[in-house]
Every structure is written in structure tokens, then in C-alpha cells.
């Protein structure tokens, strides 16, 4: 999808080919993200025309049961219950407590790097994977498997009308379930980890047993995919725009916010209408599927002057990279910490960096993957 071209089609439009609404305006996206008329349970209720053409069971829920249990795809009260259980794991105090582990991991990954580094395979992916294992409470030996799982789950979320995608995504989810089950059987679940919290909640009757693996798989996917993708994109943007040294600052937070706005990791989120809602002169009807284009909204020139320019001096009051409202990204603080540590580690070690070769992008069932980002660096 050409996101830049979408900006010339108005802030909201109906795509009759897919049978969905596409919303691109910052104010409109912000409003709909908070609207009670839109449900997050699109895997349960939302279908495009592609699903109508391909599905053998028209009207059946989309994707796997384990994904439909993810609290990000549920509304109140289930969303509040599961999110509330996980929220303490991502509090400011817990995130601060993870800083030594994150910074040590960055150091280990960058130590011994000669004059070339693949930022994706050598830093962003292994960093995000190891942090995910730590938070969830699964063995660090699992970390190298997470990138492949996340890739196939990402495809499942956008192209679940293709049998091959369903097969691969389901296999990835089953493997995560297997790791969770094995960890729980081992009686070596770290105290205070996500699995520890979920297991106790199940024992207390607050959640069902399948919710343990479901929530763990959500944390595997969301905790890895968005963070590793953002770090790779952020480094690419800094090098491409000649802003490498701007990350060497005591005030890195506004730079990270501008990088999040400039090249948003999660480009779009879906919602399905459960009641009529008016938006920019259009009426969205119950049952309509709505795509909220976060990446395009973050380039809205009515909100961000010169939106296609990476301005590391910009003071962005608010962007939509982590969403908005009740479903605001629970792990945003941890993602910021990982990005801060990764960028600081790179720039402190390597005073200069340039692309050693063009970034390697690969389409994967509707998902564009930054597969490799090779830099030539100098200390």
C-alpha cells in the first residue's frame, strides 16, 4: 500500500475493493482509537472481501483461537483484566530495573564488532528477543527462534486468508505454546515474570488456562516485533539523513520520539464498528472494518510541520506510534529503554557510520521486512 499517496485522498475514505474504511488524518485516527463504537476484536468480527472470497467457512472468526485471546484484540472487561495483570511488569520501576540487563546485552552484542555490523541480525533482533525471554520468564536459549516466529505471526495478522500463511502462523504459535508448557512443567518459572503472574492468576480462577500461552505469545510477538523493527528503522533513518551524531545526547528522548513519528513500527491497526459512528462527514456502520493508519497520521502536515523531514530538534507533543487510548502500547516504556540503550551503545562506540550496502527489504505476505542493515562503522 502506498502510504504517501493516501495522504492525497482525504483523511478518511472507503476502499470498495477490500470493503474497509481507511483513516489517515491524525485527529480522525486519534478520535477513532478512543471511540467506544469501534471494537478491537476484529479477528473475531472483522472480515475483508478477501476473506469472503477465500474462506471455506464464511462468517467464521478469523485467525486462531490463541490470537483471539490476546488482550489487544479484546474489549472491556476482558481487556482490562488481562492488561491489568501484565501492567505491573511494565511499570516505570520494573522497566528501570531492567536497564542493567538491557545495557549489558547491548554491550555484549557490540563488543568485538570490527568495521561492519548488521544492525538487524547483530543488534536489534537479538536484543529484543533476549529482553522478551527475560520478561516472560522463558529460557534465553529460546531467543534465536523468536524472529522467525514473529515473522510468521505478523503475516498471519494481515494475510490470514491464505492457507500457507495460516499454516506457518499456526505452527509458530504452537511452538510458543510448547515452550510455555515446558517452562511451566519445569517448575523453574522466575518469580515475578509474566508466566509466574499468569500461572497464579489461573490458579486463583481469574483467567482460563489457555490464556497463559495466549498472553505469552502476545508478549513474544509484540515485545519482539515492534521493538526490533523500530531500532532497525531508527538507525536507518539516522544514517540516511546524516543525523548519526544527534543520538549522542543527554536528551535522547525527543530524538527517539521523532524517530518513532518519522517511521512508525506499527503502520496500521484495525478496528470493527459495533455501533454507527460519524467521522469527517462519513458514517461508519456496524460491522464495517476500519484501518487506522498510524504511520500516515504521524505524517499529517496539519499537525507536524514538514512531516517528511526527520527533525531531531522537533519537540513532538504527541504521536501515534504507540497508539492512543485504552489500547496504548503497554510496553512503550520498555521499547524506549531498548532503543535508548541500542542507539547510545552504537553512537558511543562508533563515532561515524555509513551504509555498507543498501538496506535489504523483503516482502513477506503483505509485511515489508527490514532483513539486513549493514553499516560500515569507525570508532
Automatic annotation (TrEMBL):
Keywords of this entry: Heme, Iron, Metal-binding, Monooxygenase, Oxidoreductase
Pfam families associated with the record: p450
SUPFAM superfamilies given in the database record: Cytochrome P450 (SSF48264)
Assigned protein family: Belongs to the cytochrome P450 family.
UniProt protein name: Cytochrome P450
Biological classification of the source: Bacteria, Bacillati, Actinomycetota, Actinomycetes, Kitasatosporales
Amino acid at each position: 500500500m502506498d502510504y504517501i499517496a493516501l495522504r492525497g485522498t482525504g483523511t478518511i475514505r472507503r476502499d470498495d475493493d477490500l470493503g474497509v474504511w481507511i483513516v489517515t488524518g491524525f485527529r480522525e485516527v486519534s478520535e477513532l482509537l478512543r471511540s467506544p463504537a469501534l471494537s478491537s476484536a476484529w479477528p473475531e468480527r472483522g472480515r475483508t472481501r478477501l476473506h469472503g472470497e477465500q474462506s471455506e467457512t464464511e462468517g467464521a472468526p478469523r485467525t486462531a483461537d490463541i490470537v483471539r485471546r490476546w488482550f489487544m484484540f479484546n474489549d472491556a472487561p476482558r481487556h482490562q483484566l488481562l492488561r491489568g495483570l501484565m501492567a505491573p511488569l511494565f511499570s516505570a520501576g520494573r522497566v528501570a530495573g531492567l536497564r542493567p540487563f538491557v545495557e549489558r546485552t547491548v554491550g555484549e552484542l557490540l563488543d568485538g564488532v570490527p568495521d561492519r555490523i548488521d544492525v538487524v541480525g547483530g543488534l536489534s533482533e537479538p536484543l529484543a528477543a533476549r529482553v522478551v525471554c527475560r520478561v516472560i520468564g522463558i529460557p534465553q536459549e529460546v531467543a534465536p527462534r523468536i524472529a522467525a516466529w514473529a515473522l510468521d505471526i505478523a503475516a498471519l495478522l494481515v494475510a490470514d486468508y491464505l492457507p500457507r500463511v495460516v499454516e506457518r502462523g499456526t505452527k509458530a504459535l504452537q511452538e510458543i505454546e510448547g515452550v510455555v508448557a515446558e517452562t511451566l512443567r519445569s517448575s523453574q518459572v522466575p518469580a515475578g515474570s509474566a508466566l509466574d503472574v499468569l500461572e497464579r492468576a489461573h490458579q486463583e480462577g481469574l483467567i482460563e488456562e489457555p490464556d497463559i500461552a495466549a498472553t505469552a505469545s502476545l508478549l513474544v510477538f509484540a515485545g519482539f516485533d515492534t521493538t526490533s523493527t523500530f531500532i532497525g528503522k531508527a538507525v536507518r533513518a539516522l544514517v540516511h539523513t546524516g543525523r548519526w551524531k544527534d543520538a549522542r545526547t543527554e536528551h535522547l528522548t525527543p530524538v527517539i520520539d521523532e524517530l518513532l513519528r518519522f517511521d512508525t513500527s506499527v503502520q496500521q491497526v484495525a478496528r470493527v464498528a459495533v455501533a454507527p459512528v460519524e467521522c469527517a462527514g462519513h458514517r461508519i456502520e456496524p460491522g464495517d472494518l476500519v484501518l487506522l493508519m498510524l504511520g500516515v497520521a504521524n505524517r499529517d502536515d496539519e499537525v507536524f510541520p514538514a512531516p517528511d523531514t526527520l527533525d531531531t530538534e522537533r519537540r513532538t507533543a504527541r504521536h501515534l506510534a504507540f497508539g492512543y487510548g485504552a489500547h496504548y502500547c503497554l510496553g512503550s516504556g520498555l521499547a524506549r529503554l531498548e532503543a535508548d540503550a541500542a542507539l547510545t551503545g552504537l553512537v558511543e562506540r562508533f563515532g561515524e557510520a555509513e551504509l555498507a550496502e543498501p538496506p535489504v527489504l523483503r516482502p513477506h505476505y503483505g509485511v515489508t521486512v527490514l532483513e539486513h542493515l549493514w553499516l560500515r562503522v569507525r570508532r
